[in-house]
Specification:
The chain is an all-alpha fold and about 130 residues long. The chain has a domain of about 80 residues: Chromosomal Replication Initiator Protein Dnaa, Chain: A (Orthogonal Bundle). It contains six helices and no strands. α4 runs antiparallel to α5. The longest helix has 17 residues.
């Protein structure tokens, strides 16, 4: 295979790509580390405990607060935030919702007012009433 005239070899493109992304800051991860450290110092709980497995209420609330603040103050995705805390993105979403309800704020639109279960269902989707026609 002959290279096209004026084409840049793939090895050069790959090297330029790596150099570019090595020089750019990680999208909010350094800021997230500072937020986690701030929450740790405010609550008196170690950073390792915030990222750890313990489910003690005091630690879990501090972890949820840290997750909420990272979601509020950075542009990281739920999955990226989850990786910082060694959690799944659904756990991150739960932490944001719980903290939204606790604080009365609504970060990223994940809190909101709970909708009653019966609202929005069409007649076809409703559970059949007992004692109906026989």
């Amino acid at each position: 295979d002959e290279a096209r005239p004026g084409a840049v070899p793939w090895a050069v493109v790959r090297k330029q790509y790596r150099l570019h992304y090595a020089s750019t800051p990680l999208r909010g991860k350094t800021q997230a580390g500072a937020i986690i450290a701030a929450v740790a110092s405010e609550t008196g709980i170690a950073i390792d405990a915030l990222k750890g497995e313990q489910r003690v209420a005091r630690i879990a609330r501090a972890r949820q607060l840290a997750i909420w603040r990272v979601a509020d103050e950075t542009e990281l995705s739920l999955s990226e935030i989850g990786r910082l805390f060694h959690r799944d993105h659904t756990t991150v979403l739960h932490a944001i919702r719980v903290t939204n309800q606790r604080r009365g704020a609504d970060v990223r639109g994940y809190g909101g007012i709970p909708v009653a279960r019966s609202e929005g269902k069409t007649a076809a989707n409703r559970a059949p009433e007992r004692g109906g026609p026989r």
